[in-house]
Amino acid sequence: MAINQVLDLWQQLDAIAKPYLSPIETEEQYQETLSFFEELWDKVGDNPNSPYGSLLKLLSDKLHAYELVQHNLPEASPQQVLKFLMEEYQLSQKELEAATGIYQSNLSQILRGKRNLSTQQVKLLATYFKVSPEALL
Questions:
Q1: C-alpha torsion sign, points 99, 103, 105, 107
Q2: Is 93 within 8 Å of 107 (Cβ atoms)?
Q3: What is the phi/psi pair of residue 49, to 5°?
Q4: Are the beta carbons of 62 and 105 closer than 8 angstroms?
Q5: Are 107 and 97 in contact (CB under 8 A)?
Q6: Residues 127, 136: Cα–Cα separation, whole Å
Q7: What is the pLDDT of residues 43-102, one digit of tens each?
Q8: Crossing angle for the helix pair 53-66 and 3-21, nearest 10 degrees?
Q9: What is the mean pLDDT of residues 109-134?
Q10: How many angstroms separate the Cα of 98 from the Cα of each of 41, 55, 107?
Q11: Largest alpha-carbon pair distance within the chain?
């Protein structure tokens, strides 16, 4: 593709998607980007063959960068984050199973690092704990 074609396409894209392509500078922009990310995630999920994978990655990176600066989130594995949230909410695995529908046996395997969180589990946990899905990825 010639540079002029790329520039023409970029100009069109920028006119439509600038809020999602520019760095996040405010909490309002963060919330808008997070909502867009979640809506896109609901449509695409973790399908590795999706043509929107690079857009999810771009949005994920932007959200993560903002969170590191503004929310000062430490680096942690999804298992560590889940364990922390369960401790903060004083929840047992059985109680979390009742609240989210994720089987206790699966939670146990996830917390021991024997199993990864699925897309659906990330959505359920993020909704229940009211955190960004990013925190569990």
A1: negative
A2: yes
A3: -95, 5
A4: no
A5: yes
A6: 11
A7: 887 776 788 888 888 888 888 888 766 766 567 889 999 998 999 889 999 999 999 999
A8: 50
A9: 90
A10: 25, 34, 12
A11: 59
Whether 94 and 75 have beta carbons less than 8 Å apart is answered as no
- Predicted TM-score of the model (pTM): 0.51
Query: CB of 96 within 8 A of CB of 102?
Result: yes
Q: What is the pLDDT of residue 72?
A: 61
Q: Which residues contact 57 (CB under 8 A, 6 or more apart)?
A: none
Buried b (16+ CB within 10 A) or exposed e, 16-27: eeeebeeebeee
Tokens of 75: 């680096």
Phi and psi, residue 101, nearest 5°: 85, 0
Q: Which domains does the chain have, with CATH numbers?
A: 3-71 (no CATH), 78-136 (1.10.260.40)
Angle between the 78-88 and 104-111 helix axes, to the nearest 10 degrees? 120
